[in-house]
Amino acid sequence: MSIHPRLHAITERIRQRSAPRRQSYLDAIAAVPRDAARRHLSCGNLAHGFAASAAETKARLQGGATPNLGIISAYNDMLSAHQPFEGYPALIRATANVAGATAQVAGGVPAMCDGITQGRAGMELSLFSRDVIAQATAVSLSHAMFDSTLYLGVCDKIVPGMLIGALSFGHLPAIFIPAGPMPSGISNQAKAKVRERHAAGQATRAELLKPRRRLTTRPARAPSTAPPIPTNCCSRRWG
């Protein structure tokens, strides 16, 4: 596929401008030892790192050879796209154990939804939350206990924020895991008709809320072509 000359020129300018900093980043990543990071921890650090784990997990981790997966989760009950992550860590731990590995929840990050905060003061925190998510991700991985990472998140603030944090530990293999899609229970046309009736004073607030409840039917990614879908597509492409 050919690239428009203007787009190519902009891309090259960005590449050249960022080359020194990119090389510094690559050098820093290359300098990180490729053996298990926890082998370099003191006994006190290591013991603290698995103190809350099950006995079998402790036995595996203290040996240093067992792969340990670090999980960063954006789970909360507020967002339909993130509520399904509640049970993911247990599933990941069980699957990892069967494969001879271990898994720990390294930390959690905040996740907010424009769909809840639109028109409210909370919307002003939307884009700023990306920086907080990036920092929270990096802080969670700073324990140096992990051989690879799993990121449980969806949407346009959470996944990019997690990615930025993940890149600070770019030597660790990473997998981004989204929640599944949510089927819509109502058409856009039917929803629009209720809005029009409400604007004309012909429908109550309860009547207005009813189609919205049918639109967001269950825990899963919202049924729209809004940020979650392209964000997930980009994650796949990066992989």
List the helices and strands and how they pair.
Blueprint: H1 5-30, H2 43-49, H3 55-63, E1 68-73, H4 88-98, E2 102-108, H5 114-117, H6 128-141, E3 148-152, H7 158-167, E4 174-177, H8 188-199, H9 205-215, H10 228-238
Parallel strand pairs: 1-2, 1-3, 3-4
Helix pairs in contact: 6-7, 8-9
Describe the structure.
It is a single chain. This protein is an alpha/beta fold. The chain has three domains: 1-31; 37-182 and 223-238, 3-Layer(aba) Sandwich (Rossmann fold); 185-217, no CATH class. The chain has ten helices and four strands, in the order H-H-H-E-H-E-H-H-E-H-E-H-H-H. The protein has helices at residues 5-30, 43-49, 55-63, 88-98, 114-117, 128-141, 158-167, 188-199, 205-215, 228-238, and strands at residues 68-73, 102-108, 148-152, 174-177. The protein has a four-stranded parallel beta sheet, with helices on both faces. Helix 7 links the parallel strand 3 and strand 4 (174-177).
Kindly summarize this structure in a few lines.
GO terms for molecular function: phosphogluconate dehydratase activity. The chain is α/β, with parallel strands linked by helices. The chain is 48% helix and 9% strand.
User: How many structural domains can be distinguished in the coordinates?
Assistant: 3
Identify low-pLDDT runs: none
Please give the alpha-carbon distance between the first and last residues: 20 Å
Number of distinct helices: 10
Largest sheet: 4 strands, parallel
